[in-house]
Each structure stands twice: as C-alpha cells, then as structure tokens.
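Re: beginner question about structure tokens

> Can someone show what the tokenized structure looks like for a real chain? I only ever see the sequence side.

Sure, here's an example I had lying around. Input first:
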Amino acid sequence: MLCNADNQAVYPQLSSQKAGCGFPIARLVVWFCITTGAVLEAAIAPFATSEWQLSRQLYAQLSPDDVVVADSAYGTYADLARVKAAGADGVFRKHHARRCDFRRGKKLGIGDHLVVWHRPTTCPKSMTQEEFEALPTALEVREVHLLIQQPGFRPSQIILVTTLIDPKRYTKAKLAQLYQLRWQAAEVNLRHLKTTLNMELITAKTPQMVRKDLWMHLLAYNLLRTLMWQASEHSAVSASRLSLQGTRQQLNHFRPELARAKPSQRKRLCQALLTIVATLLVPLRPLRREPRVVKRRPKPFPRMQQPRSVLKARLAA
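And the corresponding structure tokens:
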C-alpha cells in the first residue's frame, strides 16, 4: 500500500520500522476450497490483529458438513470447539504446546484414539472473556498419529486432531490425504494470489480503495478458478491439475475477441477458451524439492533509516 496518513492510520506499519521509512501493512486471512481452489471467505484487518481473531470471525460462516483443514496454529481447544459449535468439523495438526499420550482414552487402532479435552483454565489473548466462557467445558476429540515417508515433506511424523471421530468412515489414510491437500490450498493458492496476480503490493491511496483492490483481486482469482472448473467438467482432467497462470494468459488473449464478438459468436469463443484451458496441465511432481534461496542479487543500496524528506534535504544541503 502507498504510504500516506490515511493508510497509516487504518493499517499501521510495523512497530520495528522507523517513522517515514515503512509502508502500511494489512493482514488478510483467506479460506480456500480444497476441491475447486476458489476463495470461500476472506477477512481483512490491520497487521496487528491476530490471525486467530480473523479466522474465528469466519467460523460464523461455516455450514453443516463443512470440514476445516488447517495447520498446528489452529489445533487448539478453542478452534475445535468453535468449529464444532457451527455444526462443522475440523482436521488440524496438533498444537505444539499440547501433550498427547496414546496410552489413554478409547483406542481405535494403532496411533488412533478418542480423548476428552477440557476447556483451559485461562482465556486466550485472541478471545474475549465472554467468547471463552461460551465454549463447552469438554469436547471429545480424535487424535491420529501419521507417519509421512514421502520425500519433500516435513516433519516425517505428525499428529492430527479432529472431530471426525468415526474410524470406519474417516480412516487414517483418508485423513492423511485430506491434510496433504492443505498444502495446495493454503500455500500454493495463496502464492497465486500474492505473486501470480500481483497482490503483494497494493498501490491504492485510501483505505477504502485498498479494500476494493483486495476484493477485486479475489474476484479475479475466483473468475479464473471458475474457468478452470468449467474446463475440467468437459475433460477427464481434475481442476487442480490445470495451470492458473496459463488460464490467466489465455483469458487475456481471448478478451478482445470476446468484447468484439456478437452474442451468437461469444458462445463458440467461450467453448474454444475452455478447450484450450483443459490442455494447460501442470506436471505431476510429487517428489520435487527446491532450495529456499533467492537467485537475483540485491542492489548495493542501504536500507532507508530516515524519512525520505530528511534524506532529500540532506542531499540538497
């Protein structure tokens, strides 16, 4: 976001940055559909707002039979209880602060048991006292130990906590497959939003336009996902195998023709677009591992430590 007084007031920069040397920064929490990859819900707030606060605001939008999949940050009593209260279910990785003993509880199999979690004695900082007291005093939870032997994934051993307690309907293999899909939904799709669609830096000058810009990015992203889903319905390929970047490029190629076409011709062009999109496959790379390094060298300039006006005045002097 551009750095001005209005944006700074609504979305303050990080406290570690000196005044006049940073940019306003917002926090965005997005829920993705694992099946289609589309954005289901989103919440925007200043960066100082907790991620858990935004996520718990979205729990009210859950419907019965929904299943929420998230990492260990959400494997807490409060999140499982809030999801269950909405009539949905959760599959989270166990929070690192919670101990797990498979010798206790009702044994369902090797590394699989039912236990009763009790509400903590202290209220989390991300919840109000009223919200905390509204939680049930106890909750039946299933804990599942999984051993991941596929290269490229870490850690090799994880524990899932879930409210899906039927071991016959929701086997360990199905839970492992469901949690593995979280990476595609939460990491790859979010990277598409930020990098492929250039949402990392918003150039709007007012907080109202910042929100409009963010929502337009989400709308454009869902448009691409809709095209990919429609293309997959007319072929034997899953929508998750199609390229979002390729779909964006093809849509940009077809836009002038669609704008000039007559209504009778537009249907034929749309069908041609879907046929092309269905051929844009992402290679299957299950064992792909890439180093987390940056190839491009940074420019040899120091970081800004003073406001631009001060630095310009010094140069003029």
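Each token stands for a local structural state, so reading them left to right follows the chain. The longest helix spans residues 207-233.
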